[in-house]
Design goal:
The complex is a heterodimer of chains A (106) and B (784). Chain A is elongated, with a radius of gyration of 18 Å. Chain A has 4 helices and no strands. In chain A, helix 2 runs antiparallel to helix 3 and helix 3 (34-59) runs antiparallel to helix 4 (63-93). Chain A is 78% helix and 0% strand. With 784 residues, chain B is mainly alpha-helical. In chain B, helix 1 (16-31) runs antiparallel to helix 5 and helix 17 (361-391) runs antiparallel to helix 19 (411-425). Classes of the chains: A mainly alpha (106), B mainly alpha (784).
């Protein structure tokens, strides 16, 4: 255990990324609040970023950083649009529970 | 005859005879509903009248002059070939029409009587809303019959044969709102189909018989009447077939069954009495001009075939006699005006078939012609009577028991009906006398080879009884309708029908009086012209094939005279008997007899010998049971339940299952995606894609070059590679850096034989993979 603590290596980052991703997945799957779901999606995107950067360092190849930066930019855009929608929906309906936004289903 | 087939005369206007009524039918059926009444009348009457003019022109123009010049050629007549209709292998059939002396007689009857009936119909159907359809069907009927009689070969004849069957169905069931009438139409159609099927079989047999003779390229087609008639084919008819009899017997009997269906002969006559359901002009058309005469015409047309087998002739004559007797018997107790006439038609057709069966073709066609006139007159007269009765509000306009005394109320109808009754009873000089006498005399004197000697006399005696019956029931009808006093209110106030109806009656009655003179009786010492016999002679055969003996009816003048006298007496006594019982309306004597000993006979006649009931029990009911079973098992169970509902059920189950998944909840879908993706990773075997740690070696000159392959994954990226190159089992030191282990991917060393070990060590996980290879330079020189 002490080894694990002192010798932080690539696996640690990968495991962290996996854990973050899983939290994100579970959040998307089980939560009903659109805001939380958006946050979970951000988590998953950042988990991917962590993985990208880890592998980039592992292979000594800088190109994966580019992807990570693009992902951050996309995530920012996505968050702004998503939050705008959530706010708009909240104004109209006073709630953002996704399973109650089912008008188009019928 | 073979030579004659090359000297056929061409004609280009024959096709108009059937085509004109067909065009009329087309116009009336397609545009009739938007046309005013007068236009519909004009088109339909005009079409038939024009066809009649063309027919008379053709007969009295070119055909008559040819007949005068070369009688033999006139028997083959004029041909018009429109185009080759079917050509398959040895079979060739052209759409061709032929006018010879036999079809000339027929087209004159059909178009002339048909025109009169069309004119009459304008009065009779004046109040019917579906007049355009009616006149369209009438035209189609006439056109089909004209195709039938003008056909130059059997397939074309079959077009007309089917056409008249279809039209009879349409017209008998014309008032289809009435269930019974619609059923009568269906019955006519189904019974005719039975005959048509046998007609087809007969046709196939003829083709089979003649195909060897006309295999290559017949001039007109293998089923052309001229070819069938030619002496080259004659022997084919005489070959044995099935049970040893001649092929002609089988073919002729099949064709005769077809004729039985069309001409209402004994087992298949049941549709004709029911055919009274149609409007009366239709009955007149069916009974006089079109339809029922088709069978007789066909037998005469194929006289050479029928005469080739005395067995077939025997069958034809016997069926004809039995039909004549049975129908005459059934007519006794009928109380419906048209039904009596229907049975009289069946009976008269029986006479014609006896004539045909005794080789007396001329008499058959003669009687067909005279019968066409007086029977059309009788039917149209009956229509006039019923029209008058109906007009006065009679609920049962055809019931003769409610009539009586109509001679004063309907004088024109009465006089024409009287003439026709005299004609059908065979009273001189009206038409029926001559034709019926010729049939009777012909049957008396005929002795075909192979027949029992006295069979002709038996036919004669049977026909005499039928003739007696005919005279009796026809005059019973006459007395009940016209004599005495009216027995119901409508009968007392009936009015004469309009001129459109009475004028055709007068014309028909006129012909019924005089048409008999075209066939005066034959005496050896007094020469009387028999125009019809001379006219028909080239078209029908005069020999019993193949013996080549002439068909003879030898009778001395005295015998002929006596026979005529007997026939006349029989007719007169029939009339006298009818006067005795019915002269002043339905007499009490009859009622007493019916209630007494004659009851069973009366019932048998009234129920037409229970033919319908027997057919119902033997054919109709089992068939219905079979149909019901098929419906329940095949239709309801196999198709409906298993095939249709079953497949829908299976699809439904899958649909319900997939609906459970597709519930519109996106998060639920995501669960599926995530778990599905995870599952893919779990079940995928990636071991093949993985590279295990190893190293390669290569001998270059004296040097051994080693190259490490650390394998995949984290291990590979950051691994340290240690070597044991001297085989001592320890990791070697790096000679360049004392104190440290050799850590290189690529190592070069001097030639060496022995074990080399490589370690791949992961500094993070502290895992070590050890690979050892033994090198033997002597064995694997130049190998890896």
């Amino acid at each position: 255990m002490s080894n694990l603590l002192w010798n932080i290596g690539y696996p640690h980052f990968l495991v962290l990324a996996a854990v973050l991703f899983l939290i994100g997945v579970v959040g998307v799957l089980v939560r009903r609040n659109a805001l939380i779901i958006l946050m979970s999606v951000e988590l998953m995107l950042n988990a991917a970023n962590v993985t990208l950067v880890t592998f980039s360092r592992m292979w000594g190849d800088i190109s994966a950083h580019t992807f990570a930066l693009i992902v951050i930019a996309v995530a920012a855009a996505e968050a702004s649009v998503g939050l705008a929608i959530v706010v708009a929906v909240f104004r109209g309906r006073r709630n953002v529970e996704v399973d109650r936004l089912n008008t188009l289903r019928h | 005859m073979e030579q004659a087939s090359h000297t056929f005369l061409e004609s280009s206007s024959l096709v108009w005879i059937p085509l004109l009524p067909l065009i009329g039918a087309f116009i009336n059926l397609v545009f009739g509903r938007r046309m005013p009444r007068w236009a519909v009348y004009a088109v339909s009457i005009g079409a038939v009248a024009l066809a009649c003019l063309v027919a008379f022109y053709q007969v009295f123009g070119p055909l008559l002059s040819t007949f005068r010049a070369e009688p033999e050629t006139a028997g083959s007549g004029f041909t018009q070939i429109l185009y080759t209709w079917i050509e398959v292998g040895a079979f060739k059939s052209q759409l061709a029409f032929r006018l010879d002396t036999l079809s000339a007689v027929m087209i004159m009857i059909v178009t002339f009587v048909g025109t009169l009936i069309h004119i009459y119909s304008t009065g009779y159907m004046a109040h019917d809303p579906r007049y355009s359809a009616f006149f369209g069907y009438l035209n189609l009927f006439t056109g089909s019959m004209l195709i039938l009689v003008l056909a130059a070969n059997m397939p074309v004849m079959f077009i007309g044969w089917e056409g008249v069957g279809l039209c009879s169905f349409l017209l008998i069931g014309f008032w289809y709102e009435n269930e019974a009438f619609a059923t009568a139409g269906r019955k006519a159609f189904v019974v005719n189909r039975i005959g048509d099927f046998c007609f087809l079989l007969g046709m196939f047999l003829l083709f089979w018989a003649t195909k060897t003779k006309f295999g290559a390229s017949p001039e007109f087609g293998s089923l052309d009447f001229a070819n069938l008639r030619s002496p080259a084919v004659g022997p084919a008819y005489l070959e044995t077939f099935w049970g040893g009899d001649r092929l002609a017997a089988a073919a002729a009997i099949f064709l005769f069954i077809g004729a039985c269906g069309k001409s209402a002969q004994l087992p298949l006559f049941v549709w004709l009495p029911d055919a009274m359901a149609g409007p009366t002009p239709v009955s007149a058309l069916i009974h006089a001009a079109t339809m029922v005469t088709a069978g007789v015409y066909m037998v005469c047309r194929l006289s050479f075939l029928f005469a080739s087998s005395t067995t077939a002739m025997f069958v034809v004559a016997t069926v004809g006699l039995l039909t004549a007797l049975a129908a005459a018997f059934m007519a006794f107790a009928q109380t419906d005006l048209k039904k009596v006439l229907a049975y009289s038609t069946v009976s008269q057709l029986g006479f014609m078939f006896v004539a045909a069966g005794t080789g007396n073709w001329t008499a058959a066609i003669f009687h067909l012609g005279t019968h066409a006139f007086f029977k059309a007159c009788l039917f149209l007269g009956a229509g006039s009577v019923m029209h008058a009765m109906e007009h006065e509000g009679s609920a049962t306009p055809g019931d003769i028991m409610t009539m009586g005394g109509l001679r004063k109320r309907l004088p024109l109808t009465h006089i024409t009906f009287l003439i026709s009754c005299l004609a059908i009873a065979g009273i001189i000089p009206f038409a029926g006398f001559f034709s019926k006498d010729e049939i009777l005399g012909g049957a008396f004197g005929v002795e075909p080879p192979g027949w029992i000697v006295w069979y002709g006399k038996l036919l004669w005696a049977g026909l005499l009884i039928a003739a007696l019956g005919t005279a009796f029931y026809m005059w019973r009808l006459y007395f009940l309708v016209f004599a005495g006093e009216g027995r119901s209110e409508p009968a007392k106030h009936a009015h004469e029908s309009p001129l459109t109806m009475t004028v055709p009656l007068i014309i028909l009655a006129g012909f019924a009086s005089v048409i008999g003179f075209v066939g005066l009786p034959h005496f050896e010492h007094v020469h009387l012209p028999h125009i019809l016999a001379d006219w028909l002679e080239p078209a029908v055969t005069a020999k019993w094939n193949p013996e080549g003996t002439e068909i003879e009816r030898h009778a001395s003048d005295a015998t002929t005279a006596v026979l005529m006298l007997i026939a006349l007496l029989v007719g007169a006594s029939g009339i006298a008997g009818a006067y005795l019982f019915y002269g002043r309306g339905p007499s009490k004597t009859v009622a007493k007899l019916v209630e007494g000993g004659l009851g069973p006979i009366y019932n048998a006649s009234k129920h037409k010998l229970w033919f319908d009931e027997v057919y119902d029990a033997i054919f109709v009911r089992p068939f219905k049971v079979l149909a019901r079973g098929l419906f329940e098992v095949v239709d309801r169970f196999v198709i409906d339940t298993v095939a249709v509902n079953g497949s829908a059920f299976v699809v439904g189950i899958f649909g319900r299952m997939s609906r459970w998944f597709q519930n519109g909840n996106v998060q639920r879908y995501l669960v599926g995606v995530v778990f599905g993706g995870a599952l893919v990773f779990l079940v995928t075997d990636i071991s093949d894609c993985r590279h295990a740690a190893t190293f390669e070696y290569k001998l270059v000159g004296n040097q051994l070059e080693l190259h490490a392959e650390p394998g995949d994954g984290v291990e590979g990226a950051t691994a340290k590679i240690y070597w044991d190159l001297d085989g001592d089992g320890e990791k070697d030191k790096d000679p360049a850096k004392p104190g440290e282990l050799l850590d290189k991917r690529d190592v070069t060393m001097a030639g060496y034989s022995g074990p080399i070990t490589m370690w791949v060590a992961d500094p993070i996980t502290r895992k070590e993979v050890k690979v050892t290879k033994t090198i033997d330079l002597n064995v694997s020189k130049g190998a890896k």
